[in-house]
Specification:
InterPro entries: Homeodomain-like_sf (IPR009057), HTH-type_TetR-like_transc_reg (IPR050109), HTH_TetR (IPR001647)
Radius of gyration: 23 Å
Pfam families: TetR_N
Structural class: mainly alpha
Keywords: DNA-binding
Shape: elongated
Order of helices and strands: HHHHHHHHHH
Number of helices: 10
Number of domains: 2
Organism: Acidisphaera rubrifaciens HS-AP3
Protein name: Transcriptional regulator TetR
Oligomer: single chain
């Protein structure tokens, strides 16, 4: 019963670590954590036989916990995308007792810490390339719980009506996606392209938020001024 669990790949010529008995919850946790790392590295086409070997268990034992590969992938997606999503983030964004720049800066630091990891970024891209609906589900979740609240707080920041009066428009959401996607692309450059990046991501977040809000204020002020100006008579 002794021996390590074999959570890493055996070296060439080395036998996988012997399997030991674990409680059901511990074994399930081992499989999920190992599958997250495995699919992030190999993509969703990675086979379960190799995953089982890496974990130091048999393929039939893996299927005892997850009867199909799709069952395992779905559990991985739920674990890494939705269970890491903190519902308290929506309340943080809407807390008007604090300046909006502070709220957005703290939110993106928390969000990046939970999501912009090697496994998260790579699994998100592999899921999209495989045509999985997880991306559409996650995008809808982010729009409802993050981007619409951000749009509403930007309206308040700019002195515009609440979304309860005028619904958030597609144009507003798309504009906020551009800002949100810019920070996401930082993680892409780090984990996918291995590009040279600044190590001070928190300062980058604060500067990006400040630039976005300053731009929003100027655009809104210009739009309000144009709307209030008397219309010119047509000759």
């Amino acid at each position: 019963m002794g021996g390590r669990t074999g959570s890493t790949r055996a070296r060439p010529g080395e036998k996988p670590a012997p399997r030991r008995r674990l409680a059901r919850e511990a074994r399930e946790r081992q499989i999920i954590d190992g599958a997250i790392r495995f699919f992030a590295e190999h993509g969703l086409t990675g086979n379960t036989r190799e995953l089982a070997e890496r974990l130091g268990i048999t393929q039939p034992l893996l299927y005892k916990y997850f009867p199909t590969k799709n069952d395992l992938i779905e559990r991985v997606f739920q674990e890494i995308f939705f269970q890491r999503f903190d519902q308290g983030w929506t309340s943080l964004i809407g807390d008007r007792a604090r300046p909006l720049a502070d709220r957005l800066g703290e939110f993106y630091r928390r969000y990046a810490g939970a999501t912009y990891t090697y496994e998260w970024i790579r699994l998100y891209l592999f899921a999209g390339l495989a045509g999985r609906d997880i991306n559409a589900r996650y995008i809808g979740h982010v729009e409802r719980n993050v981007l619409e609240p951000i749009c509403n707080e930007i309206r308040a920041y700019c002195g515009l009506p609440d979304r309860g009066v005028i619904p958030i428009s597609r144009a507003e959401l798309d504009h906020t996606w551009v800002f949100h996607g810019g920070l996401f692309y930082y993680a892409m450059r780090k984990h996918i392209y291995r590009a040279q990046i600044t190590g001070d991501f928190e300062t980058l977040i604060d500067r990006s938020v400040a630039a976005m809000l300053e731009g929003q204020r100027r655009v809104t002020e210009r739009a309000l001024a144009e709307a209030a100006a008397p219309s010119r008579s047509v000759a």
